[in-house]
Amino acid sequence: MRTVAFFCEVILAAMNMVRNRQKRRIYGRSRNKKQQSLKNITSEGLLRQNKNLPEWSRNKLPLTIGLLIIVCAVVFVAHWPAFNAGALSFDDTQYLTENKLVQNPSWTSAKRFLTEVLRPSTVGGYYQPLTSFSLMLYHAMGGRADYLMPFHRTSLILHVAHTTLVIILLYLLFGRIWIAAAVGLLFGIHPMTVEPIPWVGERKTLLAAFFAVWCLVLYVRYTHKNDKRFYVGSVIMYILALMSKPTSTPLPMLMLLMDFWPMNRLKWRTVWEKLPFFAIAGISVVITYISQSTTSGASLPGEYGPWRVPLVLCHNIVFYLYKIIWPVNLSSHYAFPKPLDL
Predict the structure, then answer these.
(1) Would you call the peptide bond into 337 cis, given omega within 30 degrees of 0 as the criterion?
(2) What pTM value is reported for the model?
(3) Average pLDDT score over residue span 294-319
């Protein structure tokens, strides 16, 4: 009996050892999974906690490319008549016909565009070297005041590229390729977008919009992939947008708005992410103010009374929303109503 009891104890001990070993294995696997999950959460940060953030679907890639080609073709054909536009308007004298640096392409002209930061000698009040580079390049390629087609051709290409980026941005944000393509098509052929294409001086708007939407696309990709290269690319695109036209300055605020909706990732960390953008924006504001005040004159909002800024904002929001919904009686210039007060 003792022998049997001894063997039973040995068997039970062996069974306990096997059971304990299995528990340790299961516990180890569970712990590894938890560590991997924690690592994923840490490395991904805020990017994929929200399941509403769509990834770029490879299954939809042929459809996406097809829709992009169709939309771009329609936009290109719709704006084709702009190639024959021959009129000059408003500030085209500063940007082209009386701009000696643009009319004499050289490294010296390029250097002056880049280094004349606080007191531009050609276009008063604007530090926009990329716009000047672009116009100088196409003047060297044959563009003239009496032959504007090279300028219009590039402006249309920029507009088509801008439309493509709008579709990509909307698809990355919402994951609905058909809706993104429809909105992109509406943007591409909307009458409000006609003006910058045949207007030579509005090259600045097309370039700034192109780089600004690129900035947003790269930023959204950064939130999806947590890849610092996308973040750095977004910062670079923001700088290029500002060097095209300073009106790109509020872009970091738009990023915060996108963090709130639709990406649902607005936290202190996402605010800290924008610090480089806000620092660059601050530098741009200082440069623009000094440049305006030393060349063409600048006034601060307080000089017109406390109601001036709110009234201008309300007027612009309502006025341009109306023009977007009902685009009639369009013009290249819309003066503020007088008097602009309550």
Answers:
(1) no
(2) 0.82
(3) 81
